[in-house]
Amino acid sequence: MEDKTFNKTKLNTVKRIPKRGSYDKPTIYTILDSHYLCHISWEDAGQPYIIPTAFGRVEDKLYIHGSSKSRMLSMLMDGRPMCLVVTHLDALVLARSVFHHSMNYRSAVIYGHAQKVEGEEKMEALRVITEQIIPGRWDEARLPNAIEMKATMVLSIEIDTASAKIRTGPPSDDTQDYDLPIWAGLVPVIHGYEDPIPDPGMKISQPVAQSAIEKVKKYQ
Amino acid sequence: MEDKTFNKTKLNTVKRIPKRGSYDKPTIYTILDSHYLCHISWEDAGQPYIIPTAFGRVEDKLYIHGSSKSRMLSMLMDGRPMCLVVTHLDALVLARSVFHHSMNYRSAVIYGHAQKVEGEEKMEALRVITEQIIPGRWDEARLPNAIEMKATMVLSIEIDTASAKIRTGPPSDDTQDYDLPIWAGLVPVIHGYEDPIPDPGMKISQPVAQSAIEKVKKYQ
Does A184 reach chain B within 8 Å, measured CB to CB? Predict the structure, then answer.
């Protein structure tokens, strides 16, 4: 039986404004799949660290990659507890009172453990990460050779538990504040891409890559 | 004497691709000031956590805020080591080889300690955070009353050390790959705001707030 929901534990339970919390996989995975940039934290000797990095998802597994010499990856590969978050900012929420100002957002927080990936899964993980960033690019570019694979480390992250937190909709002010002569509403945030800029170092004139055209189009 | 540079220590030294690292305050503070959303990590009993949250900066001090009941704030206020990162994604970097794909970005990582803010500084910190998110809004909205101030916790973060990491420019491929018939270049990322959406709950018709108009204009 495949569980569709993460168990609520002390670790993942959304405590502040619990109605914004969600524990079901489709909600959490949709937030993950709408981006390719996450922030990862871990601790070493009591010191917390955060690094922004790319990721990819296949079913219940996440992949990250980097240099074989990466400090983050070499610490995470021992399986220590880690946390990964993906955050989408959708709007500034301007209320009548400063107190009720907020943001509309969708964030997913993953608690898990990483382990090193080798062999065929390693190449597949690189494909998954690349395609999560820019679909179609894997088939356009030169694939990694043996030396490059050796210089690259890939980790898979097993999800122990997770939660999402989402705010949508207009501001919510105190009843009496609706009589104040103050404009309230949303300032929506846009995320998108501009027209691709060819590398000035191109020796051979090439049409713009289809993956780049599609990426820009998707957000227009 | 005011130091303009953070000391390079084991903690903040950029190890992977050191030429992308920077330790001077103007560079780091410009990255901080270009945003209002950060990710904060801390650890409790060996478990790392991350939360996205708003922040504001005044000179060498950062402010964050939240509910008086916030789990994050109540943990951080004991002064445990914490890490705060601000990340700007500027472009996808499409190289000829998968291996040299990258992103153009500017990130600032702050290592510090938090403490609770009270009294006049608390109200000023809330102004700083609000103005970092949307300049001009503090003077338009109803300011916090005593009950709201009590329900709000503000922490100041003293920066122990920090670093920035920046990538700019076109892809950088292996020499022989420049002869491949593969398009390479940048797909620039846009961040911006769309026209403000008035709260449907407005009782009194109001012109759109000047702060919202300016926010949208700045990114057009």
Answer: yes
